[in-house]
Amino acid sequence: MIMSIIEILFIPIFLGFVYEGILRKVAARMQNRVGPPIWQPLLDFIKLLSKESFEVIGSHHFLISFLSILAVASLLVIVFTFPFVSLLNFRWDFILVIYLLVFSTACFILAGFSFPSPYPLIGSTREITLLLAYELPLIIILLFFGMSYYSLLLLPENLIVSFPLFFTAFLLITQAKLGYQPFNIGEAEQEIVAGYLTECSGFELAMFNLAKSLRMFIMISLASILFFNFKNIVAFVLSSLIILFFVILLRVTLARFRIDQGFKFLWLVSIPLILIDLIRAML
Amino acid sequence: MLHVIVDDYGDDLKIAEKIRKYCQRKSPWIFHFDTGSCNGCDIELLAAMSPKYDFERFGCLLKGSPRHADIFLVTGPVTRKCKDRLVNLYEQIPEPKVVIAMGACAVSKGIFQNAYGVCGPLDKIIPVDVYISGCPAKPEAIIDGIRKGVEILTRKSG
Ligand code: SF4
Fold first, then answer.
1. What are B75's strand-pairing partners?
2. What is the pTM for the complete model shown?
3. Which residues have C-beta atoms less than 6 Å from ligand 1?
4. What is the DSSP letter of B78?
5. How many residue pairs from chains A and B have C-beta atoms closer than 8 A?
6. Domain range for A266
7. If pLDDT is split at 50, 70 and 90, which confidence band does B3 have?
8. Which CATH number fits domain B28-157: 3.40.50.12280, 3.40.720.10, 3.40.50.720, 3.40.640.10?
9. Alpha helix locations (H) across chain B?
10. Cα B35 to Cα B81: distance, rounded to the nearest angstrom
11. In total, how many domains does chain A have?
12. In angstroms, how far is CA A254 from the centroid of its own chain?
């Protein structure tokens, strides 16, 4: 039991780093560069842990460290509800997934708000605005599946055949949730330095970066479980890699939306897509 | 007290130290600051990021915030207006850190030798670890400078 819990904690972290590394490598190859090695995010993580961590005047250092750990922890709990792991499977675990996903994003936003500096403030405000746009479609999709199939464990295979538009909308939402192009509005490098993470250094930055890679692992696995749900672990990883490829493709090829454009796009594209499939399912 | 602990866990500490040094060597994050350069050096830095040279294959990333950085890369002779900001930014970079002076301007004021608004060169104001010469410095020279800076970085952290 204890061994299995340790495995459950470390395998997602490891896979999160690997996915992040694949993302950086493939993005570099798409831009005709060589790119960093695949284990680069792990090296960055260890290096950041060995660095000094600043206490910013006017902010609460302990609170920010705590929030960074909480962001990682809440994401790790989601892994316990996945069908392969099945330690926490109960009726309505979809609602737990929705709650924990929002919770980890809220940790980022709160950390941004706790710094007395304009860049994190702007980044957090934008992220909240975006949260309003992508959280509703995500909740509709997850609640619909939750009401039809009760638990992640009971999902049938290959839902993508019956709900292709759900899948398209989910890809858009994934992009917004992960803060990748075209929705990297909250941490737009050219405008607001690094958004809500501008003032973080050392340990906190390492933890928030870990939370980001974990979030990517979880959103991609969730897409794979919801829409493919292969019981075979090799097929599961392959389907995740295909989804990861789409995420990278969107990230590399698109430019950033302005905040109002991004908001409108999410509402006017993803919600109608979802509604069409929803009505089709009801008829 | 400390050397007793080191004696007990000597081998483990050495391995941990080696891992840490390897990671530091492999992921230098750069913060670039322009203290009134002619922009030639800054464009060469961008060239070092381009597909032909691509310093990301060594793990280098250009970061926007000084708090994320390991290497402080400064171009240009330091103008009077910039001096305070330069010191401020230098202090905001977490330890261990390395300063690289890039281009003839940052190394020795270059063509701005007798200009009235200039109070450089850089090593008068903050301690500099690596000098990259050239006007502008070549991308190959920049990558070489970063490599040397990274070696100093691992030595600085003990
Ligand atoms: S060294 Fe030459 S290229 Fe670089 S900033 Fe000075 S004058 Fe410009």
1. B34, B102
2. 0.87
3. B 37-38, 40-41, 75-76, 103-105, 110-111, 135-136
4. P
5. 80
6. 5-282
7. very low
8. 3.40.50.12280
9. 2-8, 10-26, 40-49, 80-92, 103-108, 139-156
10. 9
11. 1
12. 18
